[in-house]
């Protein structure tokens, strides 16, 4: 197989997809390609993905490589950091027999991930999964002990302008199947008009569906400038010591924000913010709630999420996967009902119309000449 294309290279896949064009080659350094990263790459339609790291390390069953393979995007895997450093943005790459050439000069090679190889590597992850689960649980419990006082009792909630009291809150995270889930609850959004919180890139997810976020919460590393300028309020997630790297970006845009120092994830503090401001209900879309979700984010535990969900649990409805539970579809019986309903007013109007009445009388007269009078009278037609 021979593949040629312009290289777009970045260590962070979420940054790369912002400038990756169809037909180009995505060069990444992403161990265990996750589902969200894979879907974002698929949307850009590259002709190939070259990964410096292992797309499937064997620690857990990540779905990213399988998604890329099904989309017809080949993956040249595990080329290594040394070869990754040789490729520059804009280089014209030629890949032949798993070997990479720049200006017809051979620079290195990788492993092509076929459908069979992906399946084989994913099956092998089951051997390591139990070990990863044990370490994950231990880490979660250890940090839960350290963070419980700060998160549940001593955390200072900043004052915000958004009024939550008596209203529902929708928290959107750009996680697994977030688009499908967001589409599935459109009727809920239209009916209840909840406060819309986008967690970083979740704000752009809302805008893609035609909604303007009331609030953006996060470290501001994956949300667009357009979304930040359009939303009503910005809450910058800072480290517990007060350091907030995302604040520089907000200030550079000339926007105002509220800084919220707290441990844990940005989706955790978004839920806490709504809960402490007396929201009536919290509906979460695309949030991270299991071991695989957190391993894909590079986290070794989920202490803060565990604690926060314990606290807000009475008000929390997790809409993750709701699209699989309910998928709206139009069936034939709906069309029959619609057609029948539409005919009723037409029939009533027609029956009251003098023109229609005259046509009906002419029709009966014609019947009189075709059929005997006795037959018409028997069936009360005349």
TrEMBL record:
SteA-like C-terminal domain sequence ranges: 320-368
Record bears the keyword Transmembrane: yes
InterPro entries: Put_SteA-like (IPR047795), SteA-like_C (IPR022215)
Ranges that cross the membrane: 335-353
Sorted UniProt keywords: Membrane, Transmembrane, Transmembrane helix
Domain of life: Bacteria
NCBIfam families reported for this sequence: division_SteA
UniProt name for this protein: SteA-like C-terminal domain-containing protein
